[in-house]
């Protein structure tokens, strides 16, 4: 979803292949982004726009007046099945398609409040009850909902409000008796029960998870960093001709120390699986996606989403978030939902970045863009002079005018401060020359189509006035958007969250790290890559935190992993990925060390000798590493055995999913005996089998055996991923659950 949909990519690549050779050469050899953008935009024809528009119509992002009834009925089915989570999401979908102050939206809010009540989300339930009333919930249905409100207030310990609600309910019924005798009897019974509870219930204290989350959110950086405000005083910004900009430790840093805390300049929620309507069996999609569970602005998890009044796609955790998003960018994006889903997340972030820049002083950046466009036909030396002039202008005046001005660090302000703002974003490298001509053309044509749509809608207002003779306002910002799309190839940061898997009946749940959104973090983009980094990155909503994962000595560089980690893939695979996405060959310590240990390979992939248990070494033919043993075997034979074993483990997992733990245990114990004859004790599959056995014994309630197997799994995970890894955290969390239950 980062790049445009496959249909548009294929269309553009075919268009590129049919262009005259001279036109291809002109775009391929263009010296600046403005040249690439302006040449490509001239090639965008009405039929291209029509094709893209037809693709965009495949996404249901407008409000459909027939959808609320469908989603409400589907939600009712889930509710009757006691699937309250599923019902909540479906009612939310109905709300997002409803217009304000209609019966549809009031009924969906009321039904969602009932589902939230059963989920124990009493605060959210109360908000939905208020929303249902605000949108005109039918008076004849009010008693049941008011009873639910009183129940929530009692449960939350808000006794005075609960008593008032009960009193209002009694007065309302006395004035307008609308219930049957049987209904009245049920109401009276519930009211009496609630009165007794209201007298007994004490105010509830804040739950530990909520308090813990608040504590984590309130953790601040230690010491003020005047150069990089989003970083701690323990780090400093440096620049180097080969490594570019980077951060180093200004003192010895201990593991766990917070080094960077940065809010995303902009972020865009990943839509998840949102196939076009033509790929769905029904007109309305009932599947749960990220967009149904997370706020589209702050990325907070929420069950009670607040919809945009203009479209059915954007949803928020609160009215405040909805209004902030509208003021910053959604007033422009609202009518473009289908197009932005078609063009992909990178185009969406590029647009949003320029929209947010409207609220900053981006005048110098604009002058630089305008200078490029105004001088696009000048020779290269003149262009170089222009860039130097603008760069000096950004750098400010020297205190000692007789001295030569040192070039400022790109992205810094007049005072040398590097902040998380549009100036820093603008100076992230797009690596234009490293992208293929076809890719540059795809990005330029996509941005051109987006600009045409913005121009037709008349909804785009620039950050500041564009000087005369610089081209249209949208040309200037089109070049900026193209730059951002290309920047994101190397500078996009995946915003992740931890999702728990497994049914609610399970005593022990698994957790995994999943991609929630993509954002731009100018300070984190300063960190260079290592396949074995000395930091770890985590997220709370849109805020990224970088912590030391090991001791870092004074003067050492602060390093971050761009994805290819030594614990997850071999050096050759890592190098290929880094070359294709980031355009460099990695020479970190992990890559250098792996060259010397290539004979055996990683310990989590190693085979062992069936005779003496030593590690096997070699390429096609493996030889025992022990000098006193002459055992040898072909790699293909061992790989075939490994594949057979993986199939057996897969069958055991299927038994586990089908609630047959005894059969799974029997099969897994047999797999373990087989593995001992040819797999290293630290092989990843050995650890996975221990983890599976832990789950099986936990399902039987044998907590001691479960914990024993999980601790063995932990040993393998630590060997592969390290003691500070998120994978280790997942396993420790499961072990904590086992100890709690046992």
Task: Describe it.
By secondary structure, this protein is mainly alpha-helical. Helices cover 51% and strands 10% of the residues. It contains 28 helices and 15 strands. The chain has a three-stranded antiparallel beta sheet with strand order 3-11-10, with no helix packed on it. The chain has a three-stranded antiparallel beta sheet with strand order 4-8-7. Helix 6 runs antiparallel to helix 7, helix 7 runs antiparallel to helix 8 and helix 9 runs antiparallel to helix 10. It is globular. It catalyses: L-lysyl-[protein] + S-adenosyl-L-methionine = N(6)-methyl-L-lysyl-[protein] + S-adenosyl-L-homocysteine + H(+). Keywords: Cytoplasm, Metal-binding, Methyltransferase, Nucleus, S-adenosyl-L-methionine, Transferase, Zinc, Zinc-finger. This is Protein-lysine N-methyltransferase SMYD4.
């Amino acid at each position: 979803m980062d790049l445009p949909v496959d249909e548009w990519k294929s269309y553009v690549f075919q268009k590129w292949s049919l262009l005259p050779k001279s036109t291809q050469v002109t775009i391929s050899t263009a010296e600046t982004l403005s040249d690439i953008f302006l040449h490509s935009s001239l090639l965008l024809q009405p039929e291209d726009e029509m094709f893209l528009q037809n693709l965009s119509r495949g996404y249901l992002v407008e409000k459909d007046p027939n959808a609320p009834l469908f989603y409400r009925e589907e939600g009712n089915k889930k509710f009757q099945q006691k699937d309250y989570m599923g019902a909540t999401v479906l009612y939310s979908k109905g709300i997002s398609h409803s217009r304000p102050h209609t019966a549809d939206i009031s009924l969906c809010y009321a039904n969602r409040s009932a589902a939230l009540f059963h989920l124990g989300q009493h605060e959210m339930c109360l908000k939905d009850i208020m929303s249902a009333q605000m949108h005109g919930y039918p008076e004849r249905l009010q008693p049941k909902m008011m009873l639910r409100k009183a129940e929530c207030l009692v449960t939350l310990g808000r006794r005075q409000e609960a008593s008032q609600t009960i009193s209002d309910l009694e007065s309302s019924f006395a004035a307008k008796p609308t219930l049957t005798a049987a209904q009245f009897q049920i109401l009276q019974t519930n009211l009496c029960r609630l009165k007794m509870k209201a007298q007994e219930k004490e105010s509830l204290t804040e739950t530990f998870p909520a308090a813990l989350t608040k504590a984590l959110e309130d953790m601040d950086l230690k010491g003020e960093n005047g150069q990089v405000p989003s970083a701690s005083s323990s780090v400093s910004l440096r620049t180097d001709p080969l490594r570019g900009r980077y951060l180093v430790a200004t003192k010895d840093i201990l593991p766990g120390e917070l080094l960077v805390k940065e809010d995303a300049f902009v972020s865009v929620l990943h839509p998840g699986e949102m196939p076009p309507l033509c790929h769905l069996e029904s007109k309305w999609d009932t599947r749960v996606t990220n967009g149904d569970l997370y706020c589209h602005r702050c990325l907070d998890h929420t069950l009670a989403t607040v919809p945009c009044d203009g479209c059915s796609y954007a949803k928020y955790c609160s009215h405040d978030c909805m209004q902030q998003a509208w003021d910053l960018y959604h007033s422009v994006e609202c009518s473009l939902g289908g197009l932005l889903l078609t063009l992909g997340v990178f185009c969406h972030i590029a647009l949003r970045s320029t929209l947010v820049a409207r609220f900053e002083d981006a005048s110098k950046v604009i002058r630089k863009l305008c200078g490029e466009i105004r001088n696009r036909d000048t020779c290269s030396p003149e262009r170089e002079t222009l860039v130097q002039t603008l760069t000096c202008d950004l750098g400010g005046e020297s205190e000692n005018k007789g001295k030569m001005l040192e070039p400022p660090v790109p992205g810094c302000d007049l005072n040398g401060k590097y902040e998380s703002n549009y100036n820093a974003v603008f100076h992230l490298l797009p690596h234009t020359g490293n992208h293929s001509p076809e890719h540059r053309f795809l990005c330029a044509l996509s941005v051109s189509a987006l600009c045409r749509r913005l121009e037709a809608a008349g909804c785009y207002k620039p950050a500041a006035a564009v000087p005369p003779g610089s081209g249209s306002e949208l040309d200037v910002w089109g070049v900026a958007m193209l730059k951002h799309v290309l920047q994101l190839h190397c500078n996009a940061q995946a915003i992740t969250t931890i999702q728990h898997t497994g049914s609610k009946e399970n005593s022990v749940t698994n957790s995994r790290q999943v991609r929630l959104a993509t954002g731009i973090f100018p300070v984190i983009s300063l960190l260079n890559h290592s396949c074995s980094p000395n930091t770890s990155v985590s997220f709370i909503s849109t805020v990224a935190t970088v912590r030391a994962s090991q001791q870092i000595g004074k003067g050492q560089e602060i390093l971050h992993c761009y994805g290819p980690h030594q614990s997850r893939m071999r050096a050759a695979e890592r190098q290929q990925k880094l070359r294709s996405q980031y355009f460099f060959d990695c020479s970190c310590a992990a890559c250098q060390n792996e060259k010397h240990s290539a004979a055996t390979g990683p310990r989590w992939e190693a085979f062992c000798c069936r005779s003496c248990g030593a590690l096997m070494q070699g390429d096609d033919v493996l030889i025992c590493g022990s000098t006193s043993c002459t055992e040898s075997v072909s790699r293909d034979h061992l790989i075939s055995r490994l594949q057979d074993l993986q199939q057996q483990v897969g069958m055991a997992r299927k038994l586990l999913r089908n609630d047959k733990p005894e059969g799974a245990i029997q099969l897994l114990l047999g797999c373990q005996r087989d593995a001992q004859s040819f797999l290293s004790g630290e092989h990843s599959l050995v650890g996975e089998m221990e983890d599976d056995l832990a789950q099986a014994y936990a399902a039987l309630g044998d907590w001691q055996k479960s914990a024993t197997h999980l601790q063995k799994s932990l040993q393998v995970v630590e060997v592969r991923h390290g003691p500070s890894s998120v994978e280790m955290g997942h396993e420790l969390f499961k072990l904590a659950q086992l100890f709690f239950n046992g």
